[in-house]
Write a structure and sequence with these properties.
Helix content: 25-40%
Number of helices: 14
Protein name: Pyruvate carboxylase
Largest sheet: 8 strands, antiparallel
Distance between the termini: 60 Å
Strand content: 15-25%
Radius of gyration: 21 Å
Strand order of the largest sheet: 13-12-9-10-11-14-21-19
Bound molecules: adenosine-5'-diphosphate
Oligomer: single chain
Structural class: alpha+beta
Function: Catalyzes a 2-step reaction, involving the ATP-dependent carboxylation of the covalently attached biotin in the first step and the transfer of the carboxyl group to pyruvate in the second.
Shape: globular
Length: 460
């Protein structure tokens, strides 16, 4: 019998910016009272005012450290009768310590179990599970690669190119492509030290580098009865330095066989751990249509919007209700009842200057006019006239999602929306996004993960 859970009447989002506001909107519509936390640097940030209550956290901490202080956040939640904590993405979202601290305080954690977070937080453990579950992985090392001689031995056996990856990595960091023997030593050493600095753990492993690949990921939802469903796939091949820039659902040009394989393997992996709540199973798809598992993101993702737009399912509300004890059956989310309609494309407007190597720009936004109209959805947090963009956090300003009956309709809507924006006072990547969306390869749906970095004219 599944444990009983107290009803969620009050929810704290342990995050900031657009995802905190997204969570508050979902909770408010469910009749749940919302609680924000904010750092000193965010004291006038919009997410604070979008919640019913807001509390300062992280006195004496760094701007980022304020959002990472598990003890302080859980204590604050307990003191204010919070029933559930939603971690958003980034920050504490993949930390099993938060899930455990919530359990100890009798607070629902809106996410998977601590055990699932531990398994999927370590990419080598996730690979091992995938192999044991019969899910194809990229040919790679058998677990972590401890030192250079071991790395050389792997390269000798597998050839080049290969990719060095941080076991605990994320956000495209701690990753190095190695094309020849003479690059190996430096890449290996650098990836390990980068991983140590960024994630506090220098463990790395190796995979064959899959060239001309597409990044296709499957959205899943699971409940405490062990039921799991998928909500189709997203294509996130438009990446700059392994970080996603434009995402779409569904993926274009997949054969029925590849698509069914992706969905089936995502479900198989989720079932292997009795996955609860929302998650994403990420794959690479090569030129021949073969797919390879790369990792699971056990949380809501930045690009969840495109899936919501084609399925009509509010993923954040589903997360909250599942954390409150609801089953997929309660939510009406039977696999056959989940249908995808049309196409959605999201792009991330950031305060970065594409003509200066994407250097983050800061300062006061002097004028801000955003887009609207049929088929356009905005998820924002820091964009308004008078807002001050600080250097302390990531530079995401607003996510723009367009929906249409066809990919071409959605693409035109997105371009139309980007052209409606007027943002003065800080530089944005809008000209770059316009170049991407009008590039013949993008128009043809012919994009692999190397597209952005290999197409210099996108930065003009
Ligand atoms: P992160 O957790 O940092 O996002 P991922 O493992 O999800 O790292 O990989 C991010 C991106 O890096 C992928 O979408 C892909 O573009 C590239 N990548 C990762 N592994 C491989 C590989 N074996 N071959 C080719 N590209 C890869």
């Amino acid at each position: 019998m599944a444990p009983t859970t107290r009803p969620i009447r009050k929810l704290l989002c342990a995050n900031r910016g657009e995802i905190a506001i997204r969570v508050f909107r979902a909770a408010t519509e469910l009749g749940i009272r919302t609680v924000a936390i904010f750092s000193h640097e965010d004291r006038v940030h919009l997410h604070r005012y979008k919640a019913d209550e807001a509390y300062l956290v992280g006195k004496g901490k760094t701007p980022v450290g304020a959002y990472l202080d598990i003890d302080a956040i859980v204590a604050l939640a307990a003191a204010h009768d919070v029933d559930a904590i939603h971690p958003g993405y980034g920050f504490l979202s993949e930390k099993s310590a938060l899930a455990r601290a919530c359990a100890a305080a009798g607070i629902a954690f809106v996410g998977p179990s601590a055990e699932a977070l531990d398994t999927f937080g370590d990419k080598t453990a996730a690979r091992t599970l995938a192999i044991a579950s019969g899910v194809p992985v990229v040919p790679g090392s058998d677990g972590p690669v401890p030192d250079l001689p071991a790395a050389r031995a792997f390269a000798a056996a597998h050839g080049f190119p290969i990719i060095v990856k941080a076991a605990m990595g994320g956000g495209g960091r701690g990753m190095r492509v190695v094309r020849s023997e003479d690059e190996l030593d430096e890449a290996f050493t650098r990836a390990a030290s980068e991983a140590k600095a960024a994630f506090g753990d220098g463990t790395v492993f190796l995979e064959r580098y899959v060239g001309a690949a597409r990044h296709v990921e499957v959205q899943i939802l699971g409940d405490r009865t062990g039921e799991v469903v998928h909500l189709f796939e997203r294509d996130c091949s438009v990446q700059r330095r392994h970080q996603k820039v434009v995402e779409m659902a569904p993926a274009l040009g997949l054969s029925d066989e590849t698509r069914a394989g992706l969905h089936g393997d995502a479900l198989r992996l989720a079932r292997a751990v009795g996955y609860e709540n929302a998650g994403t199973v990420e794959f690479l798809v090569d030129e021949t249509g073969r797919h390879y598992f790369i990792e699971v993101n056990p949380r809501i993702q930045v690009e969840h919007t495109v899936t919501e737009e084609i399925t009509g399912v509010d993923l954040v509300q589903a997360q909250i209700r599942i954390a409150g004890g609801a089953t997929l059956h309660d939510l009406g989310l039977h696999q056959d009842a989940i249908v995808a309609r049309g196409h959605a494309i999201q792009c991330r407007i950031t305060t970065e200057d594409p003509r200066a190597q994407f250097r983050p720009d800061t300062g006061r936004i002097e004028a801000y006019r955003s887009a609207s109209g049929m088929g356009i959805r905005l998820d924002g947090g820091s964009g308004y006239s008078g807002a001050v963009i600080t250097p302390h956090y990531d530079s995401l300003l607003v996510k723009v999602t367009a929906r249409g009956n066809t990919f071409e309709v959605a693409r035109h809507k997105l371009l139309r929306a980007l052209a409606e924006f007027r943002i003065r006072g800080v530089k944005t990547n809008i000209p770059f996004l316009q170049n991407v969306l009008t590039h013949p390869k993008f128009v043809a749906g012919d994009i692999t993960t190397g597209f952005v970095d290999g197409t210099p004219e996108l930065f003009d």
